[in-house]
Amino acid sequence: GIQVEQSPPDLILQEGANSTLRCNFSDSVNNLQWFHQNPWGQLINLFYIPSGTKQNGRLSATTVATERYSLLYISSSQTTDSGVYFCAVDSNQAGTALIFGKGTTLSVSS
Amino acid sequence: ETGVTQSPTHLIKTRGQQVTLRCSSQSGHNTVSWYQQALGQGPQFIFQYYREEENGRGNFPPRFSGLQFPNYSSELNVNALELDDSALYLCASSRAPQGYEQYFGPGTRLTVT
After folding, report:
1. A44 pairs with which residues across the strands?
2. Stretch B32-46: mean pLDDT
């Protein structure tokens, strides 16, 4: 089945730093989403981005579908950005499932 | 617009018991998918319901079953609970089965003792 790999697995930053999270996937996709999971387990939608570039405040994302990767940029990080970031894809190969990567755990300290 | 809701928030069950988890989809969404997230892992797809029919299933045994109702809300039933079923159960709704953004509820945390 389709493979989704996220890197790095862990990231430790000082408040104000910038970071880039990467998601590689092994097949063409219909849908790619980035989520932030808060400490209570809720998955917060960040971006729906099967291709192209989007920005929302300090966050932006780029998906290069032809090269099968997506990047999530976090600028001027804040302590509230801490948590786990997941990339998830759906593809014809996976049927109707959203396939998640293992996540990147981000810790931002003040 | 009401988001995806789930109940209960937490649940403690004993091995061998049965459990039912509930999910209400977001307004305008006709598709509900269920996921299991073990501690430290990404969510794993259990199954999807579309127009009251199962529309795709992950690698979970038949004791995991579900229902979707005419108002598009859904239930996840787990029979003969095992200790490994302890996890966060997430439901997501979307406008259609594939290619559309999925929105997740807050989850139900199930503990099996």
Report:
1. A36
2. 96
Mutate to test the interface with A, among B104, B109, B110, B111 (most CBs of A within 10 A): B104
> Best mutation site among B49, B88, B102, B103 for testing chain A: the one with the most A CBs within 10 Å?
B102
**Nearest Cα residue to B71 out of B106, B33, B24:** B24
Q: Evaluate the CA torsion angle B84, A86, B55, B48 in order and state its sign.
A: positive
Q: What is the pLDDT of residues A8-46, one digit of tens each?
A: 999 999 999 999 999 999 999 889 999 999 888 999 999
Which burial class, exposed, middle or buried, applies to A52 when counting CB atoms under 10 A from its CB (0-12, 13-18, 19+)?
A: exposed
